[in-house]
Amino acid sequence: MVVSLVAVIALLLLVAWLLRRFGVEKRWLSSGRGGTLTIEETLMVDTERRVVIVGREDKRYVLLLGKDGDLLLDTYEEADVEEIEEEVDEEA
Q1: In the chain, which stretches have pLDDT less than 50?
Q2: Contact at 8 Å (CB) between 18 and 25?
Q3: Using one digit for the tens of pLDDT, what is the confidence trace for 11-36?
């Protein structure tokens, strides 16, 4: 009885891991509106906070996420990023 229960739990965990591994849940959980919301980059600041760049269509939002609360640090458009990259290329 116990062996069967452990085997079923192990099988469920294996299926869940495989679904995550191959990104199936992202397709199932998407809103169906074209998937315009993306997490572009993330950086751990310390053990309790991280900075995340979230993209939506042509805008980018820089967020500070932590257990004490979330904070919008900056908002910029895709055109601003291209302009900055061109300036950096010119200086190099």
Answers
A1: 25, 29
A2: no
A3: 999 988 877 776 554 555 455 555 67
Structure-token pair, residue 7: 């085997």
The pTM (predicted TM-score) of the whole model is 0.52
Question: How far apart, in whole angstroms, are the C-alpha atoms of residue 14 and residue 20?
Answer: 10
Distance of alpha carbon 78 from alpha carbon 84, whole angstroms: 10
- Phi/psi of residue 48, each to 5°? -115, -10
Q: Which two tokens stand for residue 37?
A: 């919301």
Q: How far apart are the C-alpha atoms of 21 and 28, rounded to whole Å?
A: 14
What is d(CA 53, CA 46) in angstroms, rounded to the nearest whole number?
17
57: helix, strand or coil: coil
- Tell me the one-letter amino acid at 32: G
- CA 50, chain centre distance (Å): 12
